[in-house]
Amino acid sequence: MRYYSHSNDKITASFGDALLASLAPDGGLWMPREIPHFTQDQTAQMGAISFAECAALLARYFTEDKYSNEALREICLDAYDFDLPIRTLAGEYLDSATPEDMNDFMLELFHGPTLAFKDFAARFMGRAASHLMQATKEKRTILVATSGDTGGAIGDAFLNQDGIKVFILFPKGGVSKVQEQQLCTIGSANSNVKAIAIDGTFDDCQQIVKDAFADSKLEKDHNLMSANSINVGRVIPQSFYYFWTSLQVKAAYPNRPIVYSIPSGNLGNLTGGLIAKKMGAPIDRFVIGNNVNDPFVDYLKTGEYRPRPSVPTLSNAMDIGRPNNFPRILSLFDEDYETIRNICWGASYTDAETERHIRRVHTETGYVMCPHTAIGHMAMEEFTKDIDAPFTRITVATAHPAKFSNSVGRILHTAVPLPTALAKSVKKKKRVHVMPPTLVALENYLAMHS
Ligand SMILES: *Cc1c(COP(=O)(O)O)cnc(C)c1O
User: Fold this and answer.
1) How far apart are CA 177 and CA 120, in angstroms?
2) Cβ atoms of 288 and 264 closer than 8 Å
3) Residues 298-335: pLDDT tens digits?
């Protein structure tokens, strides 16, 4: 599989080069040239094997000779050693749920080590990158801007990997307490993962990372690599779980259309879903939930794309005013607004609406949602109002509510118990460097730590 630059399709690269280079030489985002398409017979077979096995099969089409089938299988089995349950709000699993006209399922993607869906992409990417680097003995510096969950997932996925240093930039005071604790306690004082609190917003963090990559001397000196969703190695594995879970749902409810709702920020998760659909996954529609940072929902409603500075909200991982993956979505559909609008429907919500929803769902069902997931679920409910034929609803639950125990605990007037992995990190002492939002400051820090 070759990859091309979204801004100039004559610029191409292999998967390995696209993964390590992050951005195309012209600054464009790498896109897969030919997305494989599977027939119904093929997809039925792929739905019958385990998720990790299915991911390994799909990965073959997106990588190339540098990865043997055996290597991909090892990568996926090792990366995906946790569950991705599809459950109702009452806690019934897909195969034993009571059929209703519009079953309301949650796809819980938060059972990985850092309790957010970003583990799916980070763990594949980390293993895929280190597989390449073992062969070349190169050294790399990963810069990752995070609004909360990416940094933890990437730090965890790359911890103690030889030849790789990871610098995580997060907005000071702009992530949840638990997220900050997680980010600042990865590994030990001497390990290869460092957390940096930027005196600014997530957009500032993202901008500094972009500026660092645009500075060719800095890029060369440190052999920089991005682990943000600008990296195509993050986006591809996010198609795997849509592909496989939609097949599970189709097998359980064969005659019903399937709609996924995705709480979205940088649109990487949605891009994964759209790629899965192109591969033949039986998905009819995507519903997109935004918080008040809603340039994509605005685009779906008006056809106009107006990026803007982000404002902080309860669902901080979606506080994004200029979604990284918007150009990828345009490119997937040849910039055809009508096609995009036929596949995607969106709505945006305030913090007050989010709080009310978390409270109502908890009162009615006992299910506790994180603020991001709540936005996806609200959007699904609003979408459902206009439809009377039966279909299957799947809301993507992107993070464990305990990651946002401060806000969720306040909203529900009850403590959200921390899973074991989190409880451990809460006890550790934080290690973090605070920095102004400038490239110069980052440059100095990198020089000190190289
Ligand atoms: C990253 C994140 C999102 C947004 O995903 P995108 O791929 O950036 O659209 C939503 N919810 C949570 C919990 C996240 O960590």
Assistant:
1) 23
2) yes
3) 999 999 999 999 899 999 999 999 999 999 999 999 99
Domains within the chain, CATH numbers bracketed? 86-111+233-415 (3.40.50.1100), 116-228+418-450 (3.40.50.1100)
Write the pLDDT tens digit of every residue in 23-47: 898 989 999 999 999 999 999 999 9
Distance CA 72, CA 81 (A): 14
Q: Which two tokens stand for residue 344?
A: 């995607």
Q: How far is the CA of 265 from the centre of ligand 1 (A)?
A: 6
Q: From 106, 110, 118, give the residue whose CB has the most ligand 1 atoms within 8 Å, as the site to mutate.
A: 118
Provide CB contacts within 8 A for 18, sequence distance 6+.
3, 24, 30, 232, 233
168 near 144, Cβ under 8 Å?
yes
d(CA 224, CA 450): 12
Ligand 1 atom with the smallest distance to the CA of 148 is 15
Task: Say which amino acid occupies 334.
Answer: D
Instruction: Give the position of tokens 């519009």.
Output: 102
Tracing tokens 């993607």 back to the chain, one arrives at: 109
Residue 411 and residue 427: Cα distance in Å, rounded? Answer: 24
Give 96's contacts (C-beta < 8 A, 6+ positions apart): none
